[in-house]
Amino acid sequence: MTAVGEPGVQDPSVQIHAADETPRGYGAMKRKEDARFIRGRGQYVDDVVLPGMLHGAVLRSPLAHARILSIDTSAAEAHPKVHAVITGETLAGLGLAWMPTLSHDTQAVLATDKVRFQGQEVAFVVADDRYAARDALALIDVEYEPLDPVIDAKRALDPDAPVIRTDKDGKADNHIFDWESGDRAATDAVFADAEAADDQLVVVQDMIYPRVHPAPLETCGAIADMDPVTGKLTLWTTTQAPHAHRTLYALVAGLPEHKIRIISPDIGGGFGNKVGIYPGYVCAVVASIVTGTPVKWMEDRSENLMSTSFARDYHMRGEVAVTRDGRIRGVRVHVLADHGAFDATAQPTAFPAGFFGVFTGSYDLEAAHCAVTGVYTNKASGGVAYACSFRITEAVYLIERMVDVVAHDLGIDPAELRMRNLLRPEQFPYQSKTGWEYDSGDYPHTLQVALDKAGYAELRAEQADRRRRFEAGEPVSLMGIGLSFFTEAVGAGPRRSMDILGLGMADGAELRVHPTGKAVLRVSCQSQGQGHETTFAQIVAQELGISPDDIDVVHGDTDQTPFGLGTYGSRSTPVSGAATAMVARKVRERAKIVAAAMMEVSADDLEWNDGRWQVAGDPDASRSMADIAMAAHSNLELPDGVEGHLDATCVYNPPNLTYPCGAYVCLVEVDPGTGAVDVRRFVAVDDCGVRINPMIVEGQVHGGLADGVGMALMQCIAFDLDGNCLGGSMMDYLLPTSLECPSWELGETVTPSPHHPIGAKGVGESATVGSPPAVVNAVIDALAPYDVRHADMPLTPAAVWCAAQGNPLRPDLGIT
Amino acid sequence: MQVPAQFEYFKATSVDDAIALLTRHGPESFLVAGGHSLLPMMKLRLAEPETLIDINGLDDLAVIAVESDRVRIGAMVRHSALLASPVIAEHFPILTDAERVIADPVVRNRGTVGGSLCQADPSEDLSAAFSAMRATAVIRGADGERQVPVREFHRGPYETAVEHEELLVAVEVPILAGSSSAYAKLERRAGDWAVAAAGAMLRLDGDTVAEVGIGLSAVGASHFVAPEAEDLLRGGPATDDAFVEAGRLAARHCSPSADQRGPVDYKRHLAGELTTRVLRRAARRSRGEEA
């Protein structure tokens, strides 16, 4: 081990960026956290080693649906390095064999009666090291009686389908919920009218948004340390929502909440995968209680892909009523939602289909309605975000694909069709037909910026030339141009309408300013790579006129931070970022009183100018935050009732969601002989309101675009009809690499949110939401010579070729 | 985190030492070369060798040597070394083409020619390329060396002519004056196994095909070759129509299986399409029309 001060070892406290690069507020600056990450000094859950720590491993079901006849753990228990073997029976004795999900369902922690998906947790071994724990798994003998699985979601509600949730009293089918949004009667009337009119038509298309997995670089895990003396549980865990987890452990396990400390250290990507509580975490806690020592459990890659929260799996039928001259009147959607074996979707309570209700997209409609039916299947549970803002990914894909299908059927250019139907700037705030209030935007402008950046007209001309050559028999690739225009709805959310398991979605913030003017911000949301330590410091810096380098952001430890619902659904900046601005403004107001006392003037005579409190009209009479902070801690006499110090706290309850938008243009080349798709260019113009750190925004967009290319072209978790997961390793579940990604071309428009304190809207998921339809639309556009109207993701070479042959593949099932 | 089962580890100091270790530790002892197939399988516990014998130190097997009428490629030559070799690029562009699309740079830096052949994955690239070139495998045991044509080297998926107490030490590829070659593969993503791949070697005599070799991978072609297509071309005209017809024959006679890379009809189509493309390319190279 080398130490600081030795040759070649840099002092990790040194900031990577030079001080003169640091803006005093908003602007591009390098990330404060990268100093430790690029030196390998990050601390992830698996880096934490506690004295005497034992290691856990989970035995998983090889079958998708089977009755458990017996479990013999005697050989595993006899292993010399094994300390305990926990089964469902053990947990049942503690009342912990089942746990509540985030969607008011229950989920088996360790199976007692049946296994319900391949990879389900059956037993937990605790051993001296992770090797021995794995070895002992092979010594457990489970006798299964195989049952017919329900794999095809379209068959889940068949009268003769096997019933998966026999644990629920009286459950005789696989139905979970029916949910609808919009005005059914008004929508049906518009469609009836369109069907009857000669100058209108109804366009219908079925499409699948297949099951994908967030696949964060760091898999899920936990270290549970129950102190037998103090009765305090410290849980280091991979969570995007440490405070919500603490409350849930208290409610479920009956542990007093003040005796639970959740530490979410550095997190290697979440994307929704780390929102829920997994059986492995609970097992680690129980194991620590049982053994009296800390227990670490880290899942491996296959466990992560096969058993933790998936995303999407929506089987959708879209219908659009449209006039022949391209005015979209109404949209009607039916969705069959595959939720797997347990309904563990993470979303606000009143929204079983998340925010799918924004399926009306960015368009001005007369009426809209959707009906969503959720079903159980013998697959892993979840249905989380994956950078989707609660199902907005599915909604945006549906509407943006449908607009292209309409353009195809009407023979109208898809850019022109969008321009004709986009909401106009004067319509904001816009009340959508499904009840959402879009806060702000200038959609036609944003689309025009993207079209100009792409050189849309020139691209269409190049494409026309290419098609002529193709039709003349030249060996050329097919060029496709795809658009999408998305509206996101992020920053959940107003307490009156949004909660998760009864916890309202407001976030706290605490700001301390030390005597020398250095500050510490404490926030509830936890960064998984978003750069909160930098951007949140910049928000404070902007409000207080100090350098972001002088502000530390503390997060990810429930003992050190105020309550809040966590980081997902692009809510950090819209909610915790707002809380940060508000708490900084409270500090600034306190500082004003102190500054007035310092300068012996009335506070009413002060104005905030260039980061200082200044006597109005007298630039020479001013005080910086550092001056004021020292005075606030000194023996300076303050007005009666003023306590001194500058520290403040606040809770931010968002009045509405924020609505980022964007216009994306994708250019692909398709090899007609092989079906291979090459993404040649991708233009992404995002409007996320005010940008705190444009470099970080662009990084987020880059990641989301790569994600979108992955989902559109290669990522998919399919199942064969026996219920075997066909995406259970990185060999089978393909994440895109730099070779599949073009050099992204980014642009921006800025429409501040009118209700957010700093006008920011959130951007973490925008590109993941907006890019898949652009890629798919481009590929379908390329296949015009084959008259392909739709093909489902992932558009692998096989899927493209089969679609061109008129024989499209079904992506959710194994290819036979 | 994926962790392997327990195993013993030995580092071989010579080929003879490796053979002695294999003999001593019996059938549950495995050689490890680059390890990029074996170690993941061990971590997944799909392979649980009792003993690993590491041959990474055997530098004399990591040599590319030009002999009069052939090039001898040592079994421990890394993919990256094969890719970078000017001798290989000069005589066997098929191998340079193939190496460019084998896995990714990280794997190529470590993975070896011999390891790839001995793993005998049905989607492996060099097996098809060497088969197209009619290369010869050199296998050493306690009793000395023996030579096996690469076209007889594979006995089925993951099975080869190398016995337990033997080592593949080299592959010898004949230099065929006036020939050229090419390789093409389609994958869903860089680093994925091939959906299908084809390699072709052509020696033209004017406009006539004097000699031809066609290798196929990932499409269930017996011994990684397309003999029917070769027979069609040999002695016939080197025309585009002939290459298209050879592609049709290659497609007809392979037997791909369906998986998430595609259904059977697609893979069969691809076998034909890629065969035609590599024949065209080899012919263009042969005529000096393409590098």
Q: Main traits of this protein?
A:
heterodimer, A: 816 residues, alpha+beta, Aldehyde Oxidoreductase, domain 3, Aldehyde Oxidoreductase, domain 4, seven-stranded mixed β-sheet, five-stranded mixed β-sheet, 18 helices, 32 strands, B: 291 residues, Uridine Diphospho-n-acetylenolpyruvylglucosamine Reductase, domain 2, Uridine Diphospho-n-acetylenolpyruvylglucosamine Reductase, domain 3, Enolase-like, domain 1, five-stranded antiparallel β-sheet, three-stranded parallel β-sheet, 13 strands, 35% helix, globular, CO_DH_flav_C_dom_sf (chain B), Xanthine dehydrogenase family protein subunit M (chain B), FAD (chain B), flavoprotein (chain B)
Description:
Chain B: Keywords: FAD, Flavoprotein, Oxidoreductase. Chain B: It comes from Actinomycetospora endophytica. Chain B: Residues 2-178 form the FAD-binding PCMH-type domain. Chain B: Pfam families: CO_deh_flav_C (PF03450), FAD_binding_5 (PF00941). The complex is a heterodimer of chains A (816) and B (291). The longest helix of chain A is centred in the last third of the chain and has 28 residues, at 572-599. With 816 residues, chain A is of the alpha+beta class. In chain A, strands 3-7-1-14-11-12-13 form a 7-stranded mixed sheet, with helices on both faces. Chain B folds into 3 domains: 8-54, Uridine Diphospho-n-acetylenolpyruvylglucosamine Reductase, domain 2; 59-174, Uridine Diphospho-n-acetylenolpyruvylglucosamine Reductase, domain 3; 179-286, Enolase-like, domain 1 (2-Layer Sandwich), CATH 3.30.390. Chain B has helices at 15-25, 38-43, 79-84, 86-91, 93-100, 105-110, 113-119, 125-132, 227-233, 240-253, 264-286, and strands spanning 8-11, 29-32, 51-54, 64-67, 70-74, 136-141, 144-149, 154-156, 159-160, 167-174, 179-187, 194-205, 208-217. Chain B is built from 11 helices and 13 strands. In chain B, strand 4 (64-67) and strand 5 form a beta hairpin. The longest helix of chain B is centred in the C-terminal third of the chain and has 23 residues, at 264-286. The relative contact order of chain B is 0.11. Chain B is globular and about 55 Å long. With 291 residues, chain B is α+β, with helices and mostly antiparallel strands. The model of chain B has no long low-confidence stretch (mean pLDDT 97). The A-B interface holds A 46, 130-131, 134-135, 219, 298, 300-302, 673-676, 713-714, 716, 718, 726, 729, 731-732, 734, 736-737, 739-740, 796-798, 801-802, 809, 814-816 and B 1-6, 44-45, 104, 186, 188-193, 195, 258-263, 266-267, 269-270, 273-274, 277.
